Amino acid sequence: MSTSQTNETWYAVVARVLKANKVTLVAYVPDNVLAPLIKLIHADPDFTVVCPAREEEAVAIVAGAYMGGRRGIALMQTSGFATIPNALASLICPYEIPLLMMISERGTLGDFQKGQAIVCRTMRPVLQSLGIEHFAIQDMGQLEFVVDSMIKQAFATQAPAAMILSPLLTKRVAA
Fold first, then answer.
1. Of 92, 102, 147, 148, which is most buried by a Cβ count within 10 Å?
2. pTM to 2 decimals?
3. Any idea what the CATH number is for the domain that residue 125 is in?
């Protein structure tokens, strides 16, 4: 079912596509932009949800789950992404772990926190330098295709993938 034919929210589409791809473990650090997705996933018994203290722990949990035969995703915001390059470079990339990351983009389009803006400028160059496939999803027309394709590609190629949720999609600036 295409999202253009329904009135699904962005977070309902993401949850549905995760389930369709057998991604059942969700590790996240709380974030206002991702809150509707987190709430929906918590309410769904098909998902196992873990809320670690830091993003590096979310990465480790998802990596360990993959080694144990489960598919997972780490949810975080842009500033949380800034804490994980070492884990990506020393664990995820060299050991070809298909870490799925969904990152709410902060520091742009109406988010005037200086720290967020500085970190936002570093995210794509870090992803690029590590050779991590990434895509900024800006509208509902892209959402289902990109999330589904990124998940399939990550597991087929055993490589990490980052799905960046633009404020143009979420229509929300975090407080």
1. 147
2. 0.92
3. 3.40.50.970
